[in-house]
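Two proteins follow. First one:
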Amino acid sequence: MEIILFEPEIPPNTGNVARLCAGLKLPLHLIEPLGFSLSDRYLKRAGLDYWPFVDLRVWSGWEEFIRNWKDKRIIATSARRGSLFAEYRPLKSDGLLFGPETRGLPERIVSDSSGLFNIPLEPEVRSLNLATTVGFFLGFAFSRLHSQGGLHGGV
């Protein structure tokens, strides 16, 4: 699996996701423009000393990224739209796509995906923290893949 952050805005969120990717040995794709510099101290602090272990790929925009994403599914996430997360049937080759913290994914990006899924929230809660959402979807996908015998030989 691979994690794709489209135009992330908050450095600590991206740092926490990077740390998760380092721990699980998953590629992390960041699609510009970013809401911060990659040298941001809060980004580095959230990622701790794990940055050397992150398979980080930075793309100049969606068009560059999508041109290079070959024959693999992109699974988009949303706070309010799409199917319930439990309906997601993961593949080891999936890219999980997450939108910017304050705006979510634009429709033009969602239309390039193979599916759109959400975590049901109470109406008073606008969204979950980005790193929490990434961890939630990865945990669900890993559990589902493991139960299907799909985690042997790496994630």
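Second one, unrelated to the first:
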Amino acid sequence: MMIRIDKEIVDKTTTRAKESERKRMNYNFHPQLDDLLQRMLNAMEPGTYIRPHKHEAPDKTEVFMILRGRMIVIEFDDEGEIKDLELLDCSEGRWAVEIPPRTWHSLISLESGSVAFEIKNGPYNPIDDKNFAVWAPTEKSPEAQSFLKSLTERCKALLKMD
């Protein structure tokens, strides 16, 4: 049976993200966490903090394709300096990025209702799915929001955004 991504499922996932303490929500299309290809909607509201991480051991490639809103995808070097970044914005024709394995990265939501289609190698195992950066605060730490604010300001300056 064909899987469809339409306004209804995007809206439902966005509503759940807005209601979530973390300000984000996934909607998985893969039926099992051990599927070799993970496919999901990733709805993210401004203010959600995604701690910089990389996928290694096992190595995993990750793709983000914007469906609605605007997001910044950031790659970092091993010391936490911004190495590359991309603004995903449908209205500007900037639709997707692919993050190679072993690459520190994070995302920032710039608009309420932002949703990306994410594709990643599986299987998903919470024990080894992500290696988190020691130079970035943990998700629920008191420093997380100030880190996110500073990172957002740096990215906007690099992208020459207001």
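SUMMARY FIELD: The longest helix spans residues 144-158. Residues 7-158 form a domain with the Jelly Rolls fold (CATH 2.60.120.10).
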